[in-house]
Specification:
EC number: 2.7.13.3
Radius of gyration: 50 Å
Oligomer: single chain
CATH topology of the largest domain: Heat Shock Protein 90
Helix content: 40-55%
Keywords: Kinase, Membrane, Phosphoprotein, Transferase, Transmembrane, Transmembrane helix
Organism: Rhodovulum marinum
Catalytic activity: ATP + protein L-histidine = ADP + protein N-phospho-L-histidine
InterPro entries: HATPase_C_sf, HATPase_dom, His_kinase_dom, Sig_transdc_His_kin-like_C, TCS_sensor_his_kinase
Strand order of the largest sheet: 4-3-7-6-5
């Protein structure tokens, strides 16, 4: 259940609730219909009982008889479902439909003209709905009292109730479907603010927005406010971290300069190997400090930055051509105009500069730079015709958390990779025939 979406859980709960409500309401309507039908049946039995009593006469022998029977043919058909019975003195008159069966009346006391309604067994064991009345006969009929009963088979009432439920079922199903669809629409409208929050969070992640905002319903606004407060706290923490990194860099700057001075004095004193070792260590320390400062600076920049890829590449190539390593090479650049990456131009220059310097250092005669848009990404490939990098070394350098050497191409590639990952991009290295192709992938500017 935890894996189901909130929308689906609400829809399922609503569908179950609607289905149960419709079923209960249908049963309630059937019960009301049955009660109404029974009341109508009792009223009709009472009328038929009046007809039976109105047809009573005395024959020539003075015996009580029914001179005018009710007109309903079911009274004349054996076990026809409608019955009358009169018990007077020690004798019993009954309808032809009862055949030889006598309805067992309960031993209850009735006032003159009073009626009782009973559930009694019928001639074939079926349940009967019976209306009984005690009547005092007039003098013309010999006086005295009798118990007159008219009954009907309850099976007809049950069949009427079943027919009602059967006729009601399709309308109940249609109503349930309409209510479920209405509930689904209500859920979709009610959860729409959550979709808006998700879109705002995506905008924040991609740099198109800085905060979620406050234009949300009252129930969702506290969540948006908490997320905005969290973003503000994160930005404050990053700002403090950036300040600490800057303080660290400035704090290390003087000791590094002192080390370089000591190296110069050692070199002047004729101890060149020791001076070179100190210079290498100090250079590596400075490179690592610069790398961490670059990562901190990237964390503070939004994705609203925009860098013209062709312009950055052209500037880097102009600079590298002036170096000893770049002057001896043929530079081929295939970068269309108008291609923009979602990155600060300085950050893009730093990442591409590390890759271009690495290519210039290892190329034999040519370096090729191409840039293409691939969907919402921009892929910048830098290829040289040098010896490449051993495959096992590529895997080690591209592994997350791997530490590169302090000399050679490792540090430059690590810096480029860190910048790319900080910008939601990536770096891939592929050996060619010959040479190495480094592909920097960055999000395209919107």
């Amino acid at each position: 259940m935890r894996r189901l979406s909130l929308r689906l859980r609400l829809a399922l709960a609503g569908a179950v609730a609607v289905t149960l409500a419709i079923m209960l309401s249908s049963l309630g309507l059937a019960a009301l219909f049955g009660a109404h039908v029974e009341r109508r049946a009792v009223a009709e039995l009472s009328v038929q009982l009046d007809q039976v009593l109105a047809g009573l006469e005395r024959d020539a022998d003075g015996a009580l008889t029914l001179a005018a029977a009710p007109a309903d043919p079911r009274f004349d058909r054996p076990y026809g479902g409608l019955y009358w019975q009169i018990r007077a003195g020690g004798g019993v008159l009954r309808a032809r439909s009862l055949w030889d069966y006598e309805i067992p009346l309960p031993p209850d006391a009735l006032d003159d003209g009073a009626e009782h309604v009973h559930d009694l067994p019928g001639p074939a064991g079926q349940p009967l709905l019976a209306v009984e009345r005690r009547v005092t006969l007039p003098d013309r009929l010999g006086g005295g009292s009798l118990r007159a009963t008219v009954a009907m088979d309850r099976t007809d009432l049950a069949a009427a109730r079943a027919d009602f439920l059967r006729d009601l079922a399709p309308y109940s199903a249609l109503l349930a479907l309409a209510l479920i669809l209405a509930g689904w629409a209500q859920i979709a409208v009610g959860l729409r603010p959550l979709g808006a929050i998700r879109a705002r969070v995506g905008d924040i992640r991609t740099g198109r927005a800085l905060r979620i905002g406050s234009d949300f319903p009252r129930e969702v606004q506290p969540l948006a406010a908490e997320v905005d407060d969290l973003l503000a706290a994160r930005e404050a923490e990053i700002a403090r971290a950036r300040t600490r990194a800057g303080d660290l860099a400035h704090g290390l700057k003087t000791p590094l300069q002192a080390l370089m001075g000591e190296a110069g004095r050692l070199r002047a004193g004729g101890n060149a190997p020791a001076a070179a070792a100190i210079e290498d260590i100090a250079g590596a320390m400075r490179a690592h400090v610069d790398r961490e400062l670059a990562r901190t600076r990237l964390a503070m920049r939004g994705r609203e930055a925009r860098a013209d890829v062709a312009r950055v590449i052209a500037g880097l190539v102009r600079v590298i051509r002036r170096t000893e390593a770049g002057a001896r090479l043929d530079w081929v650049s295939d970068t269309p105009d108008g291609l923009a990456a979602a990155a600060d131009p300085d950050d893009l220059a730093e990442a591409l500069g590390a890759l271009i310097e690495n290519a210039a250092r290892h190329a034999t005669a040519r370096v090729t730079i191409t840039a293409r848009r691939q969907g919402d990404r921009i892929a910048i490939a830098i290829s040289d015709d040098g010896p490449g990098i051993p495959p096992d070394r590529i895997q080690a350098m591209m592994a997350r958390g791997a530490r590169a050497d302090t000399a050679g191409s490792g540090l430059g590639l690590a810096i480029a990779r860190d910048i790319a990952e900080a910008l939601d991009g990536g770096l891939t290295l592929v050996n060619g025939a010959p040479g190495l192709t480094a592909t920097l992938t960055l999000p395209a500017a919107s």
